[in-house]
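hey so u asked for the seq, here:
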Amino acid sequence: MGKVTGFLEIERHDRKYAPVAERLKNFQEFVVPLSEKELRDQAARCMNCGIPFCHGTGSAAPGTPGCPVNNQIPDWNDLIYNGNWEEAARNLHSTNNFPEFTGRICPAPCEASCTLNIDDNPVTIKTIECAIVDKAFEQGWIKPEPAAVKTGKKIAVVGAGPAGLACAQQLARAGHDVHVYEKHAKAGGLLRYGIPDFKMEKDIIDRRIGQMEGEGITFHYGVHVGGADGLDAKTLLKDHDAVALTGGAEAPRDLPIPGRDLTGIHYAMDFLPQQNRRVGNEPVNATEILATGKHVVVIGGGDTGSDCIGTSLRQGAASVTQLEIMAAPPERENKALTWPNWPLKMRTSSSQAEGAVREFAVLTQKFEGENGAVKTLHCVRVDGQFKPIPGTEFALSADLVLLAMGFVHPVHEGLLKSLGVDLDPRGNVKANLTDYQTSLPKVFAAGDMRRGQSLVVWAIREGRLCAQAVDKFLMGKTELPR
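ran it, structure tokens below
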């Protein structure tokens, strides 16, 4: 460990945000990094526990405490405390292909599992992780790592989100000829077209793609496998020794209530990608959805809803209200019951803190409009069983309604139906957890397509494990880590 008494002597100190008035003027990242001395001090707080729950257990079960990719957190905390940044970067990348992604947008289950979190004072793991990888890029330590020996096997990875990118990089380093097929104009999936730039600027993705191209990975952009005008899925299967399906869970949850057909009601993932394309100088190619000057209501209290809030405020919305059907969670968790698992408690995102009104335990019963456009939401308070409470009805003015209630499963039309892969009861691609194989020979699945909507860190884990399974399937053995 770093400093034996560090956690007793040094208080937790994390990154700050730029002032709200300043950061609402643009779509740039607004987190203020810690200095190198501050990072060393924070790393010194790591206790190197007898059972470091921050590592994660290695299980894929829901609610598993700690880091899903099993980052060796005490190890690189010790290295940072001793000033060995390059070795810390090597250690970090041994378990996580893209710590620059997780260091920005992961909710940090590792910190919830930190022993110091028993006292609400966990090590600033996420901040240290982000600083390590950013310094590694600045110093030129991150370079392409092409395989010394090629296998002659050709693999298709369908989807260039974090699961597909992790899978592709691992397979390329094992010596395979990897081809990534992406329907959009650039790689990244929801990292590029869903996560707003103020949470992660897209040159962060581009610099990693440059490394992957240097490792021999071929990216095919604008290719919609299984789409009406895209690449035939059966042809893809025939031309490759293995296929990994790593697309997202893109079918959104709808709200089929009276007035749903009014204009001004949109899915979050019709709204967010437009702004990302504007920032990235890509054409929107659709009727523009803008919050400028409008009263915006976001239905859904999760991360996607929060992203809609931050984007709407930066576009100049007149007001933003967020509705959540769940009751307000407690301000603090009961550590004796929850630690080291991820706790249910009140959390306020940076976007929510920028000026949104949050309403809990609210059900929207119908939309009402004028001249075919939405103008009013009719809502009611609900009890713990989500049943309306008589006498609590109220109305909200709205010019723009954004549905951010999550995603139900991958899109079935096109790729999945043309391949004919089996689906699980939730509508995801059915694939074994041990070998990631679907019902079709040589077809594998990983990420949100297999497990449903989840976090970026779970996508990276799935991609890595899928790559290990594909390599073993093709070669009979594998040296890729599981």
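The longest helix spans residues 456-475. The chain has a mean pLDDT of 96.
lmk if thats what u needed
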